[in-house]
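Quick check before the chapter quiz. The format below is the same one you will see on the exam, so make sure you can read both the input and the output lines.
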Amino acid sequence: MTLLELPLSWRGRALVLRDVVLSRDAFTAEELAICDAFQLPKRREEWMRARIAAKELGVAGSHISFSHSGPYAAAAIDSAPVGIDVQVVREIAERVAHFFLADDEEEAMKRCTIEHRLLHFWCAKEAAWKQRQGTIPTLKRIALRLVEEREDGLTFDLAETVQIGDAIVALTR
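Here is the expected output.
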């Protein structure tokens, strides 16, 4: 298991792990019952990986968010609603941006020069959606304003993204 080094301002709130080794011994009987309710083995493994990330984070909070993608598992915890998203870097055709970005967001995305810019926007939207606990029906309805482009990520009014190796991670602000 590898711990990704997140931005200093995220520490204590978020954790991202790669190649989590799964052991049913890490879970209570109640947790295993939840896990075993998933029909697909892939879903059970993703659920377990994200919960292990939360256990590794090791702090208590009244709000928690989980994410997983490929070999990555992420968790965020806070006293206020929080959202985290992790995505394995992959190409996304920019012609699909209109499905989840408003017109002004798409224009802002096209002005960005960062590699995998659309995936950064996707991650930020996903994290913001999770922070709102799914109360907004689609990602397109989450208004996101780009504040700053950095070499390793983007800062939005609602979230911040960072690329670490072959993963992009977003955490709500």
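If your answer matched, good. The mean pLDDT is 94.
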